[in-house]
Specification:
Shape: globular
GO molecular function: endo-1,4-beta-xylanase activity
Structural class: alpha/beta
EC number: 3.2.1.8
Pathway: Glycan degradation; xylan degradation
Oligomer: single chain
Subcellular location: Secreted
Pfam family, one: Glyco_hydro_10
Length: 366
């Protein structure tokens, strides 16, 4: 029995068997990657927890476990352009260099977002002309700095309200929906090889916000502006997540517009702590459904967790009294949800094999 549980649970191995590594199974299921985002050592949630770094780093470095990474904070406006026209790539480069050194896919995040802006952006009295100039400088400079390194960019992040209407950010208030078009045009020119994504949360269940995300894709396509993907952040609450069928339906709706899909910030938080056998079972099912939905639809190409180690999660700092959202506990034992993820990937691997067998049979019978 572990101290972080209120109900006795079976002891879980601190180091899972190599045959159970997640990215390896994800690729066997047809995904491009299964990855984990990471933040700058010594900063924010990682500050003061340096004793955990060796074990954490070893798990993250294993490409059979995690085949991609994303800087959770280092490429955001607050950090890369803290003063107008003054750029600092220190934090973003830490994660980008890590990905290059370890041979991981790098997802880059995020060029234009209403949150975690540098204070000068919100303090300035903008005109359409001056804000256009500021966005242009920012997107061009950041995307060109990372040119050739990013598999994908989250170009615009969280532009929608929950009902699918436009979020009244500083960008929208000055430029309307044209700021989205501007950002995607600029990103396409600055880094032609990167996949360009619209990224948001609560766009995994059919409803108004999903319709809004579809509207963004259609708007850009109608203007001849490249958009390659939709990022479903997949920040869920155990027991309240979309069903497997709901997630499959939504992924297929994006795919019908000709774009790829990825789960970009997956975590499933517990809304009561400490964890219990019941809440961890709910979490396991929700992880299994999210991963299974992606793995079962060809257009869903990869999954990124928003870190993997509970003490480094953003959740407890944002949702008071909630947490345990990831797959590794503080003592580096794994959640039951780890095995839910593996079950979903192994099931999808079986489905892939069945499809391949059917395809061969059809070929020989033709």
């Amino acid at each position: 029995m572990r101290s972080h549980l209120t109900t006795a649970l079976p002891l879980l191995a601190a180091t899972p068997l190599a045959s159970a590594q997640i990215n390896k199974w994800a690729q066997a299921a047809g995904l491009k990657y299964f990855g984990a985002a990471t933040d700058t050592p010594g900063q924010r949630e990682r500050a003061g927890l340096e004793a955990a770094y060796p074990q954490y780093d070893a798990i993250l470095a294993d490409n059979d476990m995690f085949g991609s990474t994303t800087p959770t904070n280092g490429q955001k406006w607050l950090f890369v352009e803290p003063e107008q026209g003054v750029f600092n790539f220190t934090e973003g480069d830490i994660t980008a260099d890590l990905a290059a050194e370890q041979g991981k896919i790098l997802r880059c995040h995020a060029l234009v977002w209403h949150s975690q802006l540098a204070p000068w952006v919100e303090a300035t009295e903008w005109t359409p002309e001056t804000l256009t100039e500021a966005i242009t400088l920012h997107v061009n400079t950041v995307a060109e700095h990372y040119k050739g390194q990013c598999y994908a960019w989250d170009v615009v992040n969280e532009a929608l309200n929950e009902d699918g209407t436009w979020r009244e950010s500083i960008f929208y208030e000055v430029l309307g929906e044209d700021y989205i078009k501007l950002a995607f045009r600029l990103a396409a020119e600055a880094d032609p090889e990167a996949k360009l994504y619209y990224n948001d949360y609560n766009i995994e269940r059919p409803g108004g916000k999903v319709n809004g995300a579809l509207r963004i894709v259609e708007m850009l396509q109608a203007d001849g502006i490249r958009i390659d993907g939709v990022g479903m952040q997949a920040h869920f609450v155990a027991g309240g997540s979309p069903t497997l069928d709901e997630q499959i339906e939504v992924i297929e709706s994006y795919a019908a517009l000709g774009v790829e899909v990825a789960l970009t910030e997956l975590d499933v938080r517990l809304d009561t702590l400490p964890p219990t056998e019941e809440t961890l079972a709910l979490q396991k099912e929700d992880y299994k459904n999210a991963v299974g939905a992606c793995a079962q639809v060809d257009a869903c190409i990869g999954i990124t967790m928003w870190d993997f180690y509970d003490p480094f999660s953003w959740v407890p700092y944002t949702f008071e009294g909630e947490g345990a959202a990831l797959l590794w506990f503080e003592d580096f034992t794994v959640h039951p949800a780890y095995y839910g993820v593996l079950a979903a990937l192994k099931n999808a691997t079986g489905l892939c094999a069945s499809k391949a067998k059917r395809g061969m049979a059809q070929l020989f019978n033709a």
